[in-house]
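User: Hello! I'm new to structural biology and keep hearing that structure can be predicted from sequence alone. Could you demonstrate with Fusicoccadiene synthase? Please show me the input and the output so I can see what each looks like.

Assistant: Of course. The first part below is the input, the amino acid sequence of Fusicoccadiene synthase. The second part is the output, the predicted structure written as tokens.
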Amino acid sequence: MILDVGSLLPTSFRTSVDDPSHMTGPWQPATVDIQIYYSVQKLFKCSHSSMEHQFSSLVDPSRYDSKGLIADIPVRKNLFSEAEYVGSIRAQEDWNVLVGSIGEFKGGLDPKLSVVSVCIPECLPERLEIISYANEFAFIYDDATENIAHDKVRESMNETLELFLQGATTGHINPQGSGKNKIQAQIFNEMAALDRPRALITMKTWAEFLQLTSSRDRSIKFQTLDEYIPYRVWDVGQMLIFGLVTFGIGLTIPDNDMERCTEATRPAFAVIALTNDLFSWERERDAAKRDNMPHVVNAIWVIMGQHSVSEEEAKQICHSKIAKLVQDYKGIVEQYKKDESICLGLRKYIEALQTMSVPGGKIGSQEHQI
């Protein structure tokens, strides 16, 4: 389903196809609001060791159904969420024009709580549009490759990987070639115009994610959930999420803190991974049957085999595991917030994954798998 709000947007923001007259820059109407907002914020700004909620507001729990998964973690929404609609619709239209019809695609947009505005509520307002464009491209790409032959998927993924590596190493992506290439170049150019150093990091992490995904052995049959979770954590896009979140919020994490970052955030990504598996189980189960696969790469399948239980019982076990991991990560967040020996960027990123990716992932997973 495509949310039709095209009539609400300026014509220049509906597409950014290869005709230069259609290429979009920063969203000017929102830019004025952002400048005013920043001016007001400067009057009250002070230094904090934890996440500052400058660009988001709390969401009333009556507006969403968390399925009992997020405990007492508040859900927040970016105050400039209209930028997400612009970015997401641009990505849909660009794919339609440059690549092919997206058909009955279900993306990140939702009339109440769209994915990026909830997952990254403290995204800097001027970066929300391009983050949403990139996120929607990733969703569309995932859907487009879901039902094609494995060798074709790998070929397409290698092409995408090569271009992101080109951006990370040379600071430039050649827009010539396929329509998909043009969209990738659009993503990099817009990100680089806002924050070149972090744009390069995002391209690098996206490339690492694709490199890992393309080399995954999907024939592995996991015997226990403990064996499966580390595999799924990387497969869910740990490095890609790192790149998008740090770019969106404007965080810097030194290379020597990356090992600690990976270890500390492991429960958060386990929550995202298992939640996606829980809500996508029926679709993945049916797809495996259709393709005559001997097993399903999903936590529910693993739990059913490990404990010899039914689908419904496996779902309950998965639900309980997610709830435990949420509480585990809540403790990690509190621990790191108080540790001033750790760089501020890492502390904020760890907290961001709780207030953004964890609750957002649960709500968003009901519409689309990450």
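User: So the tokens describe the shape?

Assistant: Right, they're a compact way of writing down the 3D structure. Reading them back into a model, for example: Residues 149-365 form a domain with the Farnesyl Diphosphate Synthase fold (CATH 1.10.600.10).
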